[in-house]
């Protein structure tokens, strides 16, 4: 396919984004990969960063920005919800707790699929519920792999710390107890999109008396399995 559209700035921008699709890159690496002048790459990368099409990782290298995951979530939401319902049902049956799927929604998160525990005391989250990104295991999962500037901004009002998010990245899941709502525990794990970004969080939630203050010990494996299944579905259906 011809990579030259005849609109120079668009072609140069596409070259930068194409290079970042392969993974994080420093300014020097972008110059080498794109064969563009250093001032041009720097100017365009900063402009893309302003619009959140480009971000930075923890070491300051350029990465694809959160806007791509937001757009992908919007485009792929129907597909994701369709795939999620059987996975969430299995997760509910495996853990005995209500299960949910959240995606980022600006400065909040929104529940886009849920399967409730059929009987007994449960944490019921209706589809469409908008929640804070300042508390809860799903919020931590959705923020943990974000670009540093976004994390820094969110932590100003959060009930968790940068160290907590680092622990989430290391463990591959998050847990909370009484953080979002008194008496409720939860466990969440990331759903990865095809662009290598976290586009959603799979969760279970229920009363702390049943799930305990450390629900990850018993249920992290099941929640991570469910998140991996959804990530695999998205990879398969993207081709």
From TrEMBL:
Entries under InterPro entries matching the protein: GAF-like_dom_sf, HTH_MetabolicPath_Reg, Tscrpt_reg_IclR_C, Tscrpt_reg_IclR_N, WH-like_DNA-bd_sf, WH_DNA-bd_sf
Source organism superkingdom: Bacteria
Protein name: IclR family transcriptional regulator
PROSITE patterns: HTH_ICLR, ICLR_ED
Lineage: Bacteria, Bacillati, Actinomycetota, Actinomycetes, Micrococcales
Boundaries of every IclR-ED domain copy: 67-236
Location of the HTH iclR-type domain: 7-66
Organism: Demequina muriae
A Pfam match: IclR_C
Entry keyword set: DNA-binding, Transcription, Transcription regulation
SMART domains noted in UniProt: HTH_ICLR
PANTHER family attached to this UniProt entry: HELIX-TURN-HELIX TRANSCRIPTIONAL REGULATOR, ICLR FAMILY, TRANSCRIPTIONAL REGULATORY PROTEIN
């Amino acid at each position: 396919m011809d990579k030259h559209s005849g609109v120079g700035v668009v072609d140069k921008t596409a070259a930068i984004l194409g290079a970042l699709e392969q993974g994080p890159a420093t300014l020097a690496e972008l110059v080498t990969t794109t064969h563009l002048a250093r001032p041009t790459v720097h100017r365009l990368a900063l402009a893309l960063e302003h619009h959140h099409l480009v971000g930075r990782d923890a070491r300051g290298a350029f990465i694809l920005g959160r806007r791509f995951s937001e757009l992908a979530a919007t485009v792929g939401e129907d597909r994701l919800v369709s795939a999620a319902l059987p996975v969430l049902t299995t997760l509910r049956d495996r853990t005995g707790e209500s299960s949910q799927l959240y995606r980022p929604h600006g400065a909040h998160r929104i529940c886009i699929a849920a399967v409730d525990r059929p009987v007994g005391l449960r944490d019921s989250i209706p589809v469409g519920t908008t929640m804070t990104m300042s508390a809860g295991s799903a919020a931590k999962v959705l923020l943990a792999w974000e670009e540093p500037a976004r994390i820094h901004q969110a932590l100003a009002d959060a009930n968790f710390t940068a160290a907590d998010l680092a622990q989430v990245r290391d463990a591959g899941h998050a847990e909370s107890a009484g953080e979002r709502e008194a008496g409720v525990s939860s466990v969440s794990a990331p759903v990865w999109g095809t662009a290598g970004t976290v586009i959603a969080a799979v969760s279970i939630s229920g009363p702390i008396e049943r799930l305990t203050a450390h629900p990850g010990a018993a249920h992290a494996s099941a929640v991570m399995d469910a998140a991996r299944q959804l990530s695999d579905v998205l990879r398969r259906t993207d081709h």
